[in-house]
Amino acid sequence: MKIPTRNPLMVAALAVAALFARDANAADPVPHDESVYGAKALVSMACSKCHGYTGVSVSPLFPNLAAQQPSYIEWELQLFRQRARSDPHARAFMWGIARALDDEQIHGLAQYFSSQPAAKGAAPHDSALAAKGKSIYEHGVPEHDILACLPCHGPNAEGVNTFPRLAGQHRDYLAIQLRQFTGQLRESEIMHRFTQNLTDDEIAAVSEYLSSK
Amino acid sequence: MGYAPTIFRLGTLATFPLGAVVLMLASTPARAVPPFARQTGLACEACHTIPPELTAFGRRFKLNGYTLTTRPPLVEDVDDYKRNTVWLTDLPGLGILLQATYNHYNRAPPDSQVPGATAQSENLQFPQQWSIIGAGAITDHVGGFLQMTYSQPGGTFGVDNTEIRYSDHTDNNDWVWGLLANNNPGNQDVWNSVAAYPTLDFSNQSLWSSGGIAGAALSGPFFEGLGGLVAGPTAYVWYKDSFYLGLSEYHAAVSGSVNTTIDSSDLAAGGGVVQNWAPYWRAAYEHDWGYNAISVGTSGMYTKFTPSLIAGQTVDPGFINRYLDVSVDGQYQYNGQHYNVSFLARYTHETQENDPGLVPTYFSNSVDHLNALNLTATYYYNRHYGALINFNRTTGTSDSTFYGGNGSPGNQYEVFELDWLPWFNFRFMLQYNVYQVVNNNQNPFILLQSSHPRASDNNTWDLGLWMDF
After folding, report:
1. Do B56 and A95 touch (CB under 8 A)?
2. Nearest residue of chain A to residue B336 (CA atoms)
3. What is the pLDDT of residues A4-34, one digit of tens each?
4. B181 C-beta neighbours (distance < 10 Å), count
5. Distance between CA atoms of residues B292 and B64, nearest Å
6. Which residue of A has its CA nearest to B171?
7. Which residues, 6 or more positions from A137, have their beta carbon under 8 angstroms from its beta carbon?
């Protein structure tokens, strides 16, 4: 389906619709067991091995979680637990890690990582590419029917609610996620629509820009 | 060690008894461990580039005592101070490993029963090795890896790698420390740099046995052949995911032997016994960036050893040879979204001081030296298709009394391997082993009384299947 591209109101409507759609599918609550690991113990024992103790990871295979939106972390962990997000890395890593988390733990993890200081953006490898990415992020690519990212992810790419923070994220991680959205390997109806016309060059540009913020 | 139940490999000493070919077992290490996957819920790729080589995450899992799980324990009891008295996982940590292989010799090997006759050039080992593995968290701070293995061609079943770990760490993981006990120096290593966990699959480092003929062990560093002969504790510390130091002490622990000092049957089987305590060290530095990890390190061992000089002969334990093995190693890994690359290099220098009472009757020299170089490169695409090249070269002091023949312990060979993994825990392997140098009595073809057995006689094609579940 072609979506209207130059109508900011439609963009906002799609975003709000996506939020409500998510809420309607909210996970069944899992009662908290006082004897299980608290959030900080979980971070220390499990999460930190890939994402870093303060949510800043080394390998681009694993996203930075520091200063990530808490609602986004909670939502994604619930998707992992339900096996409702099934991109290859989610299956290999997060399905297993999240399978036994209860809601209290998920909430605690979201609070922990969202309160960590954000990762500093890396210096861009290619300034011209980053500038092109900035333009795509802020204005989209009208001739390709690609909408701007800014209305949902914020002027500083800090995210809001279940729209994730993108600033300072690993360049390769962002590129991998965008390719998975375009290839529909990662679930997100709205991102499938928004990324369907993105070219590899445009993905590289947006990733370069956001990782440098 | 791969496999070393009651018969074990002793590097150069395997050829000790008057040049007789000592029965050795082609050994393979533990590879991926399904019980760990069940416990953590993580795919194999979390811990392994391609098993048994560990990723950065796999190294952390092992150093943290195999205990990682987010699953609540099945049973957890606490005392009045809220300390755990019982903590049990809800899954039994059991797994099966099966390995089969079809081998083709470049030249038909000597027959085991009829002197001068040859056996078939091919053999099929199904299974070549079959292991039961118990692995995973024992308590919230203690984990273990216990392996029992049936192995061809000996047809024996016995204790293989065994390790129990305790570990703890600061909240921020800057410091991880632990205590462990195991029965194989190097089993505790997380950089795959020692013999207990080589990168090779279907390793042919012992010349392949065929048609009922026992293969002969190639000369190699002494401390790499002590698996199953010794056991001991290790204390280690790991700082900021970068600096590792582990110190161990090993003592003779021959299975089934009451007196491990002078038991003649064990001496005959194993070529001797380790005296008192043998210190072992491992230090390494690792740096990770992006998809990359690089490490440099050293390991080594000082061992006092009473050799058995003739099979079945009880030896005065007063004779003691002293071995000092010093290794340096380096590793580079690229663990990307679609492919993995790794390079592994290890160089070992060994100084062997022979007891004056054994020179010149059993050794030509009072001091022998050995140098071993191992280089391995691997590439895997999407974890389905891969290739491996391995180069090995050993040189050393000529000691015609000890080694026989021309006295050289030298050997040189390469392994070329193609892999197909339809699933991560199910691997087909085509391997070609090419020998340039196989000196002296280590060459089984000497039994054919060939005046000049060629190293290339030992070249083999191996078609292998490996799986665990």
Report:
1. no
2. A61
3. 444 555 555 555 555 444 444 445 555 555 5
4. 16
5. 21
6. A44
7. A148, A149, A150, A153, A157, A206, A209, A210
Count the helices and strands in chain A (H runs, E runs).
12, 0
- What is residue B13's predicted lDDT score, i.e. its pLDDT? 38
Largest CA distance in chain B: 77
Determine the pLDDT at residue B459. 86
Cα torsion B245, B62, B6, B151 to 10°: value is: -140
Report yes or no: B379 and B350 within 8 Å, Cβ to Cβ: no
3-class state of residue B367 by DSSP: strand
Do B41 and A95 count as a contact with CB atoms less than 8 A apart?
yes
Among B255, B287, B289, B252, CA closest to B272? B252
Q: How far B42 CA sits from the closest chain A CA (Å)? A: 5
Residue spans in chain A of domains classed CATH 1.10.760.10: 31-114, 121-211
Nearest CA in chain B to A51: B57
CB contact under 8 A, A96 and B57: no
B347, B325 in Cβ contact below 8 A? no
Q: What gap in Å lies between CA B227 and CA B4, rounded to an integer?
A: 7
From CA B286, how far away is CA B329, in angstroms rounded?
Answer: 12
Across the interface, of B70, B171, B173, the residue whose CB is closest to A100 is B70
> Identity (one letter) of the amino acid at A90?
A
Which of B275, B283, B263, B274 lies closest to B193 in space, CA to CA?
B283
Residue B30: is its pLDDT beyond 60? no
Range B269-287 average pLDDT: 85
pTM (predicted TM-score): 0.83
Tell me: the pLDDT tens digits for B182-207? 998 988 999 976 654 444 444 443 44
Set of chain A residues whose Cβ sits within 8 Å of the Cβ of B171: 40, 44, 53
Give the tens place of pLDDT for each residue, B251-263: 988 654 444 444 4
- CB contact under 8 Å between B57 and A50, yes or no, is yes
* CATH of span A31-114: 1.10.760.10
Q: Do A176 and B291 count as a contact with CB atoms less than 8 A apart? A: no
Class at the top of the CATH hierarchy for domain A121-211: mainly alpha
Enumerate domains of chain B plus CATH numbers.
11-468 (2.40.160.10)
- A47, A51, A58, best to mutate vs chain B, most B CBs in 10 Å: A58
Distance CA B3, CA A202 (A): 54
Indicate if the pLDDT at residue A62 is higher than 50.
yes
The ipTM assigned to this model is: 0.76
CA torsion sign, A63 to A82 to A86 to A194?
A: negative
Report the residue from B67, B70, B169 with minimal CB separation from A97: B70
Residues near B378 by beta carbon (within 8 Å), at least 6 away in sequence? B49, B50, B53, B199, B340, B341, B342, B386, B387, B388, B389
Interface test with A, best of B42, B89, B384 (most A CBs within 10 A): B42
Neighbours of B240 (CB within 10 A): 11
